[in-house]
Specification:
- By secondary structure, the protein is mainly beta.
- 1% of the residues lie in helices and 42% in strands.
- It has one helix spanning 88-92; strands at residues 3-6, 9-16, 44-48, 57-59, 62-63, 69-74, 102-106, 113-114, 120-124, 126-130, 140-142, 152-156, 159-160, 185-201, 214-232, 244-245, 253-266, 279-296, 315-331, 343-346, 359-364.
- Strand 1 (3-6) and strand 2 (9-16) form a beta hairpin.
- The longest helix has 5 residues, at 88-92.
């Protein structure tokens, strides 16, 4: 069996091609499974063919307590960092494919793929969505309940949304009222969380339960880079609803970096009266925020709402010792009722905390 080294561990490779009409052994690209196997083993790296959205492997709605290390890898592009770690057969297989992602889906509204004891998890070049169901529960759940966390979770070159509801594409022009674009990833406690070069389609429409895109209660180390959020105006709202809810406690994480994050807001018909949020972070010794841009783009509908308000802070930072913000811009010209700020800094500069070395806020507009 072919293997791949990720971190300091060797993983057994199983190949998956959801576009195949029949299933093989998974040992080679030519004999790939056409779906995930019924029994998923610890220490497995699934190398999944990148295909159109119509071909997707289904995640089981189950809790796997014995899985500690697992990788879901959409076959890397040559420019991806992971490409060089692939065995030769994986580098040459499916080389003419043009799709950007491999596809993983959850086939029930309230289903979750739960790994409470995960230590290493990678989702790479995967489009994660539901197969036409409401978003009532998080698709991926890492609910390790003790602090400090033990897991390292990485999401690279991925997309999160719903098949056929591509609000990240300017050509998509349908007002959104269904409960589809939320509740992707839930993490309780983690050693490290990295989200890099990802697209997140997020909206509160039709329901406000389990409202976040990513929810993380606490990670010692947090790294968010080159993430692009696409947000129709909300028809529903509730507190603590963020596409990137990255820290829900003040436990003094070691380091937080959020760089090059954009949010594209789209008008969403007459019912979309609430400005969407972006990120929520609190409780870090050191936090660097750089190059955040929020702007409006092409409307999803020709019908506009009669009111538009910020119900909660769009970006929220709290209880941070050392803070650097360099490059923050927000342009929401249709906003007429600013109930809450675009950027809120709560107890970052004063309060019962030892001052940090860096307290910077510059290049904002």
């Amino acid at each position: 069996m072919a293997t791949i080294t990720y971190g300091d561990m060797e993983f057994n490779i199983i190949y998956v091609d959801p576009s195949k009409s029949s299933s093989g052994t998974g040992a080679t690209p030519a004999t790939a499974y056409n779906s995930l196997p019924a029994n998923i083993a610890d220490g497995t790296a699934f190398i999944i063919r990148r295909t159109a959205e119509t071909s997707a492997a289904s995640l089981p709605s189950s809790t796997l307590t014995g899985i500690r290390n697992i990788l879901f890898v959409g076959r890397p592009l040559p420019a991806d960092e992971l490409y060089g770690f692939m065995p030769a057969e994986a580098q040459t297989a499916w080389g003419s494919d043009t799709a950007a992602y491999a596809n993983l889906k959850m086939n029930t509204s309230g289903g979750s793929f739960q790994l409470p004891n995960a230590q290493r998890f990678l989702l790479h070049r995967v489009y994660l969505f539901r197969g036409g169901f409401d978003a009532t529960q998080y698709i991926l759940k890492f609910n390790y309940t003790s602090s400090p966390g033990i897991g390292c979770f990485a999401f690279e070159h991925c997309k999160f949304g719903e098949k056929g509801i591509d609000v990240d594409q300017s050509s998509y022009a349908t007002a959104l009222t269904t409960n589809r674009l939320k509740a992707y990833v839930y993490i309780q406690y983690a050693r490290m969380l990295a989200i890099r070069d990802c697209i997140i389609n997020h909206a509160l429409t039709g329901s406000s339960s389990n409202p976040c895109g990513f929810y993380c209660c606490f990670a010692d180390v947090l790294d968010v880079e080159d993430v692009h959020v696409y947000s129709p105006m909300w028809t529903d709202y509730t507190s603590s609803a963020y596409p990137l809810y990255l820290s829900g406690t003040t436990q003094k994480g070691v380091e937080c970096q959020i760089r090059n994050v954009t949010q594209t807001i789209r008008m969403n018909g007459s019912s979309g009266t609430h400005v969407p949020t972006l990120f929520y972070v609190q409780g870090y010794i050191s936090c660097e925020i750089k190059d955040i841009a929020i702007a409006m783009s092409k409307a999803l509908s020709t019908t506009n709402p009669t009111s538009l308000a910020t119900e909660y802070p769009v970006c929220y930072l709290s209880n941070i010792y050392e803070l650097s913000i360099d490059g923050f811009s927000a342009s929401i010209p249709s906003l007429w009722y600013a109930k809450e700020p675009i950027l809120e800094l709560n107890r970052c500069y004063t309060g019962n905390y030892v001052p940090g070395v860096v307290k910077t806020l510059k290049n904002e507009s």
